[in-house]
Write a structure and sequence with these properties.
Blueprint lengths: L1 H13 L1 H21 L14 H12 L9 E7 L9 H14 L5 E5 L13 E8 L8 H16 L3 E6 L11 H18 L2 H24 L1 H4 L3 H31 L4 H28 L7 H22 L1 H8 L7 H9 L14 H11 L1 H16 L7 E2 L11 H13 L7 E6 L6 H13 L4 E4 L3 E2 L5 E8 L6 H12 L1 H8 L2 E5 L1 H35 L3 H26 L15 E2 L1 H30 L4 H29 L6 H33 L8 H6 L8 H4 L9 H7 L2
Parallel strand pairs: 5-11
Antiparallel strand pairs: 1-3, 1-4, 2-3, 6-9, 6-10, 7-9, 8-9
């Protein structure tokens, strides 16, 4: 591996113009494809196999031409204090709005609240329902303007009017302030780390190029694979973070090789062969974790994981080719000022390496080596305390209630809850299949009566039959809100009592609707978490076993990951569910953790944790196989890698923290969770627990059974083969010219 990447790095350095033009051509090509690509197709079923999805599919099959896929708007009216919405003037304003909104070719129908009896008992609140013939993305500006203008007119007449539904909902999009803030913070860290604007700018430039290629590819392939900009959010987040980090490691190793006296071309080749090998295997662990999301069975999750994995692959390829090529253009600018002075006198690379210098990494390593047991106990205990809130983890799919009160969707949600009850925002939809019943209407009536009499149900709507008369559906409004534990228990109760009703009527029924769908998804994802964890940990164990040729090091890496991810999940529960410090992060409504969040956190953090493991421990193993004693190998590894690992972790924390400002609750939660997880994994697990464990294990840390050693491939991540070959330190013609400038 090291030899192959050495040659690749050398080739990229020599043929830098070719490499640069190839990447430029790729970027232009995908941008052009993205600009001309048709819109992405519908995501389709969110999670096939769960009851709520089966019922939804049956409803679409038996009620063809239904408006379930069209955009909708729920206009909520609240009368001024002391007045009723049924007062003459207020009623006239509502009727006028309904008539105005009903015009237009894209309108399917408008349900007036006074005709549908959609008025609260105290007559303070009412709502009108608008359905469209097309999806929200296909609504014309004229249609949207009509809706907005009608609402403004009603507000001018003294009513409070809020809007829910999909018609005017803000569509999430990748790109924007979060990425800009993340890049700015990363730039500060890079400048401090390298002390060179060129060295700081190169990783940023290559990472931005990689993200641009990845996002453009997602847009270009959107119509083919059903990818959307929501899918691209994770790819942006990870592509930016690992793109900067991978380039950072290659540039850092290049600077190290230059400080040893190697000529620019040789230094770039050695950096690609050593740090590049670590980049390849670190990238593989991230790809394994993301590709493992396919086992969950959620199409959207699969698409997001594979798209993000593609972004990581692009970042790896850029680090191995474009970074060495750019080093060829600026062979000296990326060096520190002190090294530039040396290379001016010894451009051919003849100065001796010198005595290893003490730095913060070596001092910290020696501190841990002197006190391995206290450091280990303190680290494990601290992470264990942070992980305690996980025992109270509640998963769900927050909707409008999780949005800020500054949004009209949230205000509409609150107004409906105040006027009609907490459960009104999360009605259950019951789909009755009466094909097997002798009397379909009687069977549906019995089912409606049984569910209406269930404790926790406030009301049921009249059943609607399909054209064939063999299927019906009706709504049941629960007492509690859609994310309350009582509603979850209610859905389970209805399903538990179902067999007796089905036997008596000969009809079958299923529970669906957004509330039931979210409950089923949360349960399915919770059940899939442990198998997913076992798969990615197992595959990565094999990978790390090959990389480090050790049994105990991969086990240590996996256990450390479990500690950091559980502690990060505990922090997420404490903030987003319990509300500790929620106001500081702009979280106005706490509640269940987004169902997808734990899966994302486990997969992504595992990949990133293995990044730090590979980058840090690879240098320790490199020193060990070159003759250092175990303790000294730890110190050597920290001397070379601690500073750059700290910088890489700070960059990731900066990038992920920037996403906490996102208005999207899922993005906010993931950004916070990832930032905390990287903080804990890099600074507690990898920088403290890893050296403590290695100090206690000594030579045993690198033990491998002989039979296993014989059958395993030797990938040579440490670049051992490069040590035995004669170095070619002759700079190429262009570099000689740059040296004399």
């Amino acid at each position: 591996m090291a030899t192959i990447l050495y040659r690749l790095g050398r080739m990229a350095f020599q043929r830098r113009w070719t490499v640069l033009l190839v990447w430029a051509a790729v970027l232009v090509a995908v941008l052009a494809a993205a600009a001309t690509a048709p819109a992405a197709k519908d995501e389709g079923s969110f999670m096939p196999g769960i009851e709520a999805q089966k019922a939804f599919d049956l409803m679409e099959q038996r009620f063809p031409g239904s408006d379930s896929e069209g955009a909708n708007a729920r206009i909520v009216f609240v009368a001024p204090d002391g007045q009723k919405i049924t007062a003459t003037d207020n009623r006239a304003a509502v009727d006028e709005l309904a008539d105005e909104v009903g015009t237009g070719s894209q309108i399917d129908r408008v349900v007036n609240p006074f005709q549908a009896k959609a008025v609260s008992e105290d007559a303070s609140t009412a709502y009108a329902t608008v359905t469209y013939k097309v999806k929200a993305a296909d609504l014309t500006d004229a249609t949207k303007k009509t809706l907005e203008s009608a609402i403004d007119v009603a507000k001018d007449k003294g009513l409070t009017v809020e809007l829910g539904g999909t018609a005017l909902a803000t569509q999430p999009a990748a790109g924007g302030m979060a990425e800009g803030v993340g890049v700015a913070l990363a730039a500060v860290v890079l400048v401090i780390t390298f002390g060179s604007l060129a060295a700081a700018g190169l990783p940023l430039l290559t990472a931005i190029i990689g993200v641009g290629i990845s996002l453009a590819s997602i847009l270009a392939l959107g119509s083919t694979f059903g990818l959307s900009m929501t899918t691209g959010t994770l790819a942006t987040m990870l592509g930016l973070a690992v793109g900067i980090d991978y380039a950072l490691f290659v540039v850092s190793r290049y600077r190290e090789e230059r400080s040893k006296g190697h000529a620019p071309q040789e230094a770039a080749a050695l950096a690609a062969g050593t740090a590049g090998s670590a980049v390849v295997f670190a990238g593989l662990t991230v790809v394994i974790a993301l590709a493992g999301l396919t086992v969950i069975g959620v199409p959207m999750l699969t698409k997001m994981g594979l798209a993000a994995a593609g972004a990581v692959v692009v970042a790896v390829l850029i680090a191995l080719t474009l970074v060495p090529a750019l080093l060829g253009f600026w062979p000296h600018s990326v060096l520190s000022r002190a090294t530039r002075k040396k290379t001016g006198k010894h451009s051919s690379g003849e100065q001796p390496e010198g005595v290893p210098q003490e730095n913060g990494g070596t001092r910290w390593a020696r501190f841990v080596l002197r006190r391995p047991i206290p450091v280990l106990l303190a680290g494990v205990a601290g992470l264990g305390v942070l992980a305690l809130p996980v025992t109270d983890l509640q998963m769900g799919m927050p909707g409008d209630e999780a949005k800020p009160t500054s949004t009209t969707e949230r205000r509409a949600y609150d107004a409906l809850a105040d006027g009609f009850g907490a459960g009104f925002n999360g009605p259950l939809t019951i789909v009755v299949d009466a094909k097997g019943a002798s009397d379909a209407k009687a069977a549906v009536a019995t089912v409606t009566e049984e569910i209406g009499g269930t404790k926790g149900i406030v009301s049921v709507s009249p059943a609607q039959f399909n054209a064939a008369g063999d299927t019906a559906m009706f709504s049941a409004v629960p007492t509690d809100g859609p994310n309350d534990a009582a509603t979850k228990d209610l859905v389970q109760t209805i399903r538990d009592e179902r067999p007796a009703t089905e036997t008596a009527t000969g009809a079958t029924f299923e529970v669906t609707g957004s509330t039931a769908m979210n409950i089923d998804i949360a349960q399915a994802l919770q059940s899939a978490l442990l198998p997913y964890l076992a798969i990615i940990v197992g595959l990565a164990f094999v990978l790390l076993l090959v990389v480090f040729r050790s049994v105990l090091v991969p086990i240590k890496a996996a256990l450390g990951f479990l500690l950091s991810v559980l502690a990060a999940l505990g922090a997420v529960v404490a903030v987003f569910q319990w509300g500790w410090g929620a106001e500081l992060l702009g979280i106005e409504q706490t509640g269940p953790i987004m169902s997808l969040m734990p899966i994302f956190l486990v997969g992504i953090v595992f990949g990133l944790a293995m990044d730090y493991e590979v980058f840090l421990v690879a240098r320790m193993r490199e020193a060990y196989i070159h003759g250092d004693r175990p303790a000294q190998a730890v110190v050597t590894g920290f001397r070379h890698s601690a500073r750059v690992v700290v910088a890489a972790a700070l960059i990731m924390i900066a990038v992920f923290s920037a996403f906490v400002a996102s208005p999207e609750s899922m993005v906010k939660t993931i950004g916070f969770g990832l930032a905390v997880a990287v903080l804990l994994d890099a600074f507690v697990v990898r920088m403290a627990l890893v050296p403590a464990v290695l100090a206690l294990l000594g030579h045993k840390a690198w033990w491998l059974p002989r039979w296993l050693d014989k059958i395993m491939p030797n990938v040579d991540v440490e670049g051992e083969a490069l040590q035995s070959r004669p170095a070619n330190d002759q700079p190429d013609h262009d570099t000689r010219q740059l040296t004399h400038l």
